[in-house]
Amino acid sequence: MYKLKTWNPEDPTFWENEGKKIANRNLWISVPALLLSFSVWMLWSVVAVNLNSAGFTFTPEQLFNLAALPGLSGATLRIFYAFVVPIFGGRNWTVISTASLLIPAIGIGYAVQDTTTSYTTMVILAILCGLGGGNFASSMGNINFFFPKSKRGTALGINGGLGNLGVSVVQFVVPFIVTVGVFGSIGGDPQVLIKDGVSKSIWIQNATFVWVIPIVLTTIAAFFGMNNLETAKASIKEQFVIFKCKHLWIMSFIYTVAFGSFIGYSAVFPLLIKFQFPGIDPLQYAFLGPLVGALSRSVGGWAADKFGGARVTFWDIVVMIGATFGVRYFMDQHNFIGFFMMALLLFVTTGVASGSTFGMLSKIFNPKEAAPAIGFISAIAAYGAFFVPKAFGWSMQATGSSAMALYGCIVTYFISIIVIQYYYSRKNAEMTC
User: Fold this and answer.
1) Which overall architecture, per CATH, does domain 3-425 show?
2) Residue spans per domain, the chain
3) Which of 125, 142, 284, 386 is the most buried (most CB within 10 A)?
């Protein structure tokens, strides 16, 4: 029942009579699984903001490190997760990988209740959140198998875009859920937060415990509702052929510019607001950036199918450059409204570019190559979740400003549009997509 021995989505009759329903069912179970993965992956972007207010004494650099480490571990795990679907099966791996999210979700919930918890323990728990980051590689590779080539950009845009919403969801839900003792005695005692001489109770552990039941329910849904495809099976040797293709490395760079920026900015955004605009509560606004970025990813996937992924990605990154200059300008002016509007535009462009780039991948690689290629490329790009916060942390420590980090991003964006133009979007490009 769970194993499908024949699968041919390129056959219109098969697709309309049987394939579409099965593919969509797998997609719509994959979406919440991926959303929860991103929520767990980005937990530290909001947990780190509250730690010192609740009695911990970590330095700003240590807090930036806790926000960055899940990106490092998640990106590294994606390298391995890129190759597991053709070996274990998409359904099987979705069940395993979703259930694994319970480890950091429960572990962090207990650790934050004790202010004597060591920084080393927090580092280990931050690294374990990378289990959520790794899931993207296997999830996108799996969904790619189910859809015909003409619909892959849209399907991957939906899976990735709605999955990316987990970043925004965690930054929206956590500020509210930590103010209410919703789990009673089971959830533990509150911490006392003192601000401007006023004390109030918060439950930081709720930031992680709130995901436990959804993770369990989604794991069950994947077990009973998803499928393994026999036609997707491939050995490690068969999959490793992608490393001989130069486009794997070129697209890794382009997708790092797109998704690496999205996930990196998502991880650092609350802390950036906190340090650049001390009078602003970052958790009231930070979730909106990842929200618009995630929603725009689906638009990017659709646009790639309709207008061509290379063309959409090229012009979108041009706008990214302008938005980054805008962010820098309004930071200098200490104008939060201008900064925030430019930041939202920047998030939108990172989302569109992420979707349109994956639209390019589905045209460059054949189905069996696409799954490991998508996974590996997403792994490289996910290092943005580590290096972007680290770059901002270094810039703040060395110069007292984030200017150097932003200028580094702008230079990278300029290089990427030259690469896209040469390899994919000019008249005689060797691979038009």
Assistant:
1) Up-down Bundle (1.20)
2) 3-425
3) 142
